[in-house]
Amino acid sequence: MAKEVAAPATDEQLEQLAALFRLLADRTRLNLLMLLADGEKNVTNLCDTLGLPQPTVSHHLGLLRMSNIIGNRREGKQVFYSLNGRVGIDPDAGTMNVGTQAFMVQIAPKSL
User: Fold this and answer.
1) Closest CA to 83 of 94, 93, 97
2) Exposed, middle or buried by CB within 10 Å (0-12, 13-18, 19+), for 109?
3) Per residue in 29-77, pLDDT tens?
């Protein structure tokens, strides 16, 4: 039985993947994703946990939101952030999967 060879990625698919890697290449944004993996949080909680000023956290949340990695909802004056459907969490394996239309990037602890 012949093994099927995957079609080469298009320029658009590769650009989406490169944009995702650029987004994930920041320590603050990775920290935010890992904190949101535990559930919905507001900006104040995230600022306190990260020890960063509100404008910095809001800037990074905005980049993640504009890339559809996280979602938000407003409750009065507070905005709560959470992961959306492009991010999958497997708590048993300790992994996080972030996807584009054509690719999935997995963040997992290194096995010893």
Assistant:
1) 97
2) exposed
3) 999 999 999 899 999 999 999 999 999 999 999 999 999 999 999 999 9
